[in-house]
């Protein structure tokens, strides 16, 4: 027995002797031999990285070979390689963009990538933004706004749509949001289920503005927001927050590697007593705070390596909240489970995934008397649905580029019921679609990359006017490197959006506003173009660009009668024209100070309208100007102070442009720090207690006022 222990110790000792630590050195160059400055070389298995100098050289010490590294640089495709020698020469190919929904490429964190126009917000940046929910953090992104200015923390979930580039949501989002390549947009209503995502399940968020229907299909008229979960992280964290108004939260994250498998899990819980959404001058006894409680979880299990992987992913959650009166309430719950396989050969890639997403939604509606002293329950609606999606992608390297073919199959079944005093109506609904697409990216010259894609979709839904519809969309883009740190970008695209089942079949009444469904809605079709320039310096980055979009047969809530009861119906109101500018700027004057500014200016109006009263009107819930300013300042003893200002100009709440929401701004402060294995934070939201109008019917609703919270997180990396 003693001999066995001595032998084991000797072998263990020998293993260390045979694998000494070493220093990895190398260069990163373009295909023409030019050195690439600023390329990031990071080690996959440990927190070690280096950035190349002006000669393209890098050095990483204290490594044990073999080691797997990631290499990324602006304007070039990323690369992952296993290294067995101490000196290497790496050649990066110019970036050719083909949007995959199954295999997520590594991206450098950047406020606005000068080569692609993508905003990449890593976990570290998200932690410095004073926010509770993901959609609140995204308000620092130029061109991004939320329907009715309120976030998923306090808003009715059916209004959680995304507006990008002046294409306003009406509950249903005109921007697509994906978690791990699977839509977070609800299969029945198109709104985004933000509260399904634990904070610790987000490694980074990529925001691509502009139509991307050729890659991801319907709903991506304004752009794509990709939430990327952690990959190969070994860590443990447990934290909580508490504050006003009676806010409490818990967050958990854990990741571990076991042999050739990696497992990760995250969960969160949140509650708040909320605030009364109706403005003080209009409140009555029936008005109550919008309390909310939600819980969620995320899990992932990965087998294999980058050459061949099998992944199982799942998430789900429940959300229970009040809508501002005694009887109005929302309850929703749902989950997604997915299995995926991907493999990469010398010149070919293959990936496939099957996902199933069951969802349940319940909401009550009431009428309130003029004095707001009493309310009557008028309707209780329930939807129970399941969406199944299958995706297959095949990629192939071509001379100086890459080709990607995609096939998608979607099947949705929904039971919808509407219980009223006169009786209950039920509908068994289906929403089936198929799509095939192909994308190609090529770099005919070192400084030039071109991308083009086309996608054809079919949809079958019994409520559609023609029962079966189809659409073909496409996109072409180009990026030209004017100088080592200057990029010119441009694209043209066509896109579309099917009307959601919610828009086709669901009537509802909130207060004195009745909104009717329309089973004869036609799909929206859009054409768009944009051009921009990105510049970088040693300590700064700037991006400026213009966009133009026309949405034919735009779906809007059109007012058809006014008075004590305002009646609206979802209609193809005409064309929605949106044109404008996006500006992004980042500067680091000192290593301890970072300033970021973003702004968007949009002229979004109705044209060729179905009735003269709409012609030339501004699109509802789209401000002419919106912007943000963030300042992060590193303080002594490892603390960081962050300031966030957001401002928006006036905007209309309705299609007739009768109800104007006042301009508004919000100022938030946050201080964070670390003490050994603890991270602490203190946050003051809406520090100046500004009034932010979110709706007018003509009663005014407002966003929550000043609030404070503090939190502590224990972590092990």
Overall description:
The chain is mainly β and 717 residues long. 5% of the residues lie in helices and 58% in strands. It has five helices and 42 strands. It has a 22-stranded antiparallel barrel. It has a five-stranded mixed beta sheet with strand order 8-13-14-11-12. A four-stranded antiparallel beta sheet has the order 3-2-5-6, with no helix packed on it. The radius of gyration is 26 Å and the shape is globular. The two termini are 37 Å apart. The N terminus is likely disordered.
SSE blueprint and pairings:
Elements: H1 2-18, E1 22-29, E2 40-43, E3 49-51, E4 57-63, E5 67-72, E6 79-83, E7 87-91, E8 119-122, H2 123-127, H3 134-137, E9 144-146, E10 162-164, E11 176-179, E12 182-183, E13 204-209, H4 213-216, E14 223-228, E15 235-243, E16 247-258, E17 261-272, E18 292-305, E19 308-322, E20 329-344, E21 348-368, E22 375-398, E23 401-420, E24 423-445, E25 448-460, E26 468-483, E27 486-497, H5 501-505, E28 508-510, E29 513-516, E30 524-536, E31 540-561, E32 566-590, E33 593-607, E34 625-634, E35 640-648, E36 651-652, E37 660-661, E38 664-675, E39 678-685, E40 693-696, E41 700-702, E42 707-716
Parallel strand pairs: 1-7, 11-14, 29-32
Antiparallel strand pairs: 1-4, 2-3, 2-5, 5-6, 8-13, 9-10, 11-12, 13-14, 15-16, 15-42, 16-17, 17-18, 18-19, 19-20, 20-21, 21-22, 22-23, 23-24, 24-25, 25-26, 26-27, 27-30, 28-29, 30-31, 31-32, 32-33, 33-34, 34-35, 35-38, 36-37, 38-39, 39-42, 40-41
